[in-house]
């Protein structure tokens, strides 16, 4: 109770200050999804990201110096992901490590009695009760293109949502037994179909990496949900509905409304 009081008091003092002007330019330039939000949602994201930035440890790796641009770009995307969820749901993530670009992870590979060491190139990692690690160049690339279909921040923080219940199984905490049942059936069927399509060499919207395991399936599906919502809803309507219900967001509707608004503005200027 006392901790909660101090936390709320600290956050209230933080948000009493005006939003930094230069931070707004980072949002508008580096976070493509920010433009799709309505005015109220944008204001909420600005408040959320300030709290997020203040309450995480930020560390540059590989010679990278952490700047406000890096913090704002990453924090804004993480906050858009959880806009419809409990804003403290990522509180277990205390540290964010950022490399200038992809990094190498030494990995032990065991095949029977044979054990070999190999270097695996990575763009990001998420650890249960541990940090999130990101490559800044890929964060910037995917953040600036909201229709790319791949978003490193969404992917790694989706893993952190999966980790909340301590079980890494592609199922974040849900609100009722009925939701868990619908999730198991709907996600299970979509995953099994992806496995069949991948093994048959067919193109899939989700891609072969999503077929690696249930956790990666959820993380990749989250990327497509925000970046390619119309395509995901068309090809996988049940999957889209489950993610819409979980995230309490409808990116497809949001982006269609934004495009219509832009279209009407263009007509008014003709």
Could you please describe the fold and organization of this structure?
This protein has helices spanning 2-15, 21-30, 39-55, 68-81, 136-144, 152-163, 177-199, 214-227, 229-235, 237-247, 251-269; strands at residues 57-60, 95-99, 103-111, 114-122, 124-126, 132-135. A four-stranded mixed β-sheet has the order 1-2-6-5. Strands 3-4 form a two-stranded antiparallel ribbon. With 270 residues, the protein is an alpha/beta fold.
Q: Topology of this structure?
A:
Elements (H helix, E strand, L loop, with lengths): L1 H14 L5 H10 L8 H17 L1 E4 L7 H14 L13 E5 L3 E9 L2 E9 L1 E3 L5 E4 H9 L7 H12 L13 H23 L14 H14 L1 H7 L1 H11 L3 H19 L1
Parallel strand pairs: 1-2, 2-6
Antiparallel strand pairs: 3-4, 5-6
Helix pairs in contact: 2-4, 3-4, 4-5, 4-6, 6-8, 8-9, 9-10
Principal-axes shape call: globular
Overall mean pLDDT:
93
Percentage beta strand: 5-15%
Radius of gyration: 19 Å
Strand order of the largest sheet: 1-2-6-5
State the share of residues found in helices, binned by percent.
55-70%
For the termini, the CA-CA separation is 58 Å
Query: Could you say which structural class the secondary elements and strand pairing correspond to?
Result: alpha/beta
Main β sheet profile: 4 strands, mixed
The string of secondary-structure elements, in order, is HHHEHEEEEEHHHHHHH
Low-pLDDT stretches: none
What's the number of extended β-strand segments?
Answer: 6
């Amino acid at each position: 109770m006392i901790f909660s009081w101090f936390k709320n008091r600290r956050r209230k003092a933080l948000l009493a200050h005006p939003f930094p002007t230069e931070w707004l330019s980072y949002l508008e330039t580096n976070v493509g999804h920010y433009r799709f939000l309505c005015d109220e949602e944008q204001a909420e994201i600005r408040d959320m990201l300030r709290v997020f930035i203040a309450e995480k440890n930020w560390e540059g790796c590989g010679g990278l110096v952490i700047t406000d641009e890096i913090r704002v770009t990453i924090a804004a995307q993480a906050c858009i992901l959880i806009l419809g969820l409990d804003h403290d749901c990522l509180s277990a993530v205390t540290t964010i490590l950022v490399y200038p670009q992809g990094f190498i992870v030494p990995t032990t590979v065991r095949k029977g009695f044979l054990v070999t060491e190999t270097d695996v190139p990575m763009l990001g990692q998420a650890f249960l009760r541990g940090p999130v690690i990101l490559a800044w160049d890929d964060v910037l690339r995917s953040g600036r293109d909201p229709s790319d279909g791949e978003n490193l921040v969404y992917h790694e923080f989706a893993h952190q949502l999966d980790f909340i219940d301590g079980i890494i199984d592609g199922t974040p905490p849900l609100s009722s037994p009925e939701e868990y049942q619908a999730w198991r059936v709907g996600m299970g069927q979509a995953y099994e179909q992806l496995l069949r399509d991948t093994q048959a060499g067919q193109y899939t919207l989700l891609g072969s990496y999503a077929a690696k395991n249930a956790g990666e399936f959820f993380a990749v599906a989250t990327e497509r949900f925000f970046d390619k919502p119309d395509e995901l809803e068309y090809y996988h309507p049940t999957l889209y509905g489950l993610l819409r219900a979980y995230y309490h967001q409808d990116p497809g509707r949001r982006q269609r409304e934004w495009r219509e608004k832009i279209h009407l503005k263009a007509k008014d200027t003709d």
